[in-house]
Amino acid sequence: MTNPTKENGTSGIPAQRRTAFLELMLLSRECDRRSGIVLRQGEAWFHISSAGHEALAALCELLEPDDLIFPHYRDRALMLARGMDAEAQARDLMAKEKSHSAGRNMSAHFGHRPGNVFSIASPTGSQCLPAVGAAWAARLRGTDQAVVCSIGDASTRQGEFFEALAFAVERALPVVFLVADNGYGISTPTDTMSPHALGLLPPARTTVVDGADPDAVHTASAAALAAARAGEGPTVLWCRLDRLESHTSSDDHRVYRSAADLAALRDPIDLFADRLTAEGALEDGRLQDIRARLARDVEDIYDRVATEPIADPGHITDHLYAPRPATGPGPDAGAGQEVSVAPCGGTMVAAVNRALATGLARHRELVLFGEDIDDPKGGVFGFTKGLGPAAGPRMTNAPLAEATIVGAAVGLAAAGMRPVVELQFVDFAGPAWNQIAAQLTTLRWRTASAWQCPVVIYAPWGGYLPGGGIWHSQSNESLFTHLPGLRVVVPSTPEDTEAAFLESFTADDPTLILLPKHLMRRRHEPAARPAPAHGARTLRTGTDVTIATWGNGTELATEAADTLAADGITADVLDLRWLVPLDRAAVADSLRSTGRLVVVQEDNRTSSYGAGLISELLCADDDFYSLLAPPRLVTRDDVHVPFHPDLERAVLPTAHDVVAAVRSTLA
Length: 667
Description:
By secondary structure, the chain is of the alpha/beta class. The protein is elongated. Helix content is 36%, strand content 13%. The strands form four sheets. A seven-stranded mixed sheet has the order 9-8-10-11-13-12-17, with helices on both faces. It has a five-stranded parallel sheet with strand order 1-2-3-7-6, sandwiched between helices. A five-stranded mixed sheet has the order 14-16-15-18-19, sandwiched between helices. Residues 1-10 and 327-331 have low confidence and may be disordered. It has 23 helices and 19 strands.
């Protein structure tokens, strides 16, 4: 007998879709079963089962093609519903060349660009802030696009989940948080530690759902999505269900779950099949026929995919950056449009403000986001002062939460916006590190360029500004240059600053612009001629020694060069400006001419960028055999920057240190 509420579609999955949805659940389960077999056959290395989570895919019955999903690794059925078919999932499992990541991302770390499914990163909960960023993009554009953020209950203890929920509530963003509560975080029961169990979720925005019942999921999702599209903000769908298999193929849940517990688990496929049978929609024997057909089909698909090639290891560095411009200069990996700025004086602060104003005027998708950046303050350093009228809703203050700033920017960029975000000091990037290292810098590479992340982050950087102390004087550029996929620039003049910003607004990769606090308010006369946006800039020319530096080091290096010139010693002083991509050719060419190298930095010595640069040059025979003396690194010792100005001066490098280093290479 047919349930009339299903017949007219007022509750649960509509009648015309019910059998098809059961088949989708069965296909998901069969893919899980076949994945386990393939793993045991040695054709795969890791598997995460979605068994027990299939009913959550009922939400996809209500999504529009433009809606976005930020998925969880047990969302196999959701992926099938969004078009990532069994063949694509087999390639994902076996890390084949034609998989969505070209074999770079782990299995069950789903992604499907045609279905607007964002790529999964392993750090749990790291999808939440990009999800609300994408929802913010929809709000800025005035569309009725909705975003689904799927997550496991154990992962909701991550701080980024709470930051994302707070941001979504604050801005009434169209997000549905789909929480799969299967009662476990690997082996740890979550019934006494989840945010819901602890009463930490807003009751007015939380709906508890029977996550093993597709009709219940469908009904709750319909209400949540309607609220999101109507501008009522986010809903948390807390879906209670059972994980039917071990956490992963590396786990055995029989070690920590009793036989009675395992016997009592609810299987959503059995429950829904029984309901369809009772409704008369599933004839006797039909279920067995579907299972048998899917088993044959999936076996054929997985067997065929097993014979496909893996990606060519020779192309493993492809997609770290966007392709170079066809006419661009050599060192511009991942660069945007080549930019040169007309000679201008003033300060770096004014140059940032001027560049941001230009960016807002030229790029409709550009969004400014950071702490205290809105008028009347315009940021701690005044970078954005007076931009409010031109920016409108495209410039807003961020909460005191660096992870939110960068994570939301990732989602904005993934949704096609051009976010430019300010961190008040680079010293405070720590809370955002998860988003920088796990999402921002890996997204293009792990999706073979299906997704890109053109975020611009700028931050005051460095010491030589008395009273900064440990947490306002860091020059930790090596932390960021260590991350493949991130472009890093340290300008030291207004022209270079403006050019770096303007070029980055059109680049298709993330850019970090580090602004030396010591130099940013120093007035400059206009340069004699414009400099290109990329490559090293020559500050002094000479034949006796090459001094390579960046940021505040340019002041030390030029002062030292002037002192040495009085004794007839001439130095080639290079301001590297771009640390990534490095203009290696400029340094190597100068070194082959002078035979001596001094690298000047203010960061501490061990594992620093300067140490890496020297190592890079020493490893090339042509450069090594050009050396007439061992290279020198002028640097801070491995100690933090202290608060008292006299103590700060005692630990930071000086022009005298540079002079001494140069003289030692000439001895």
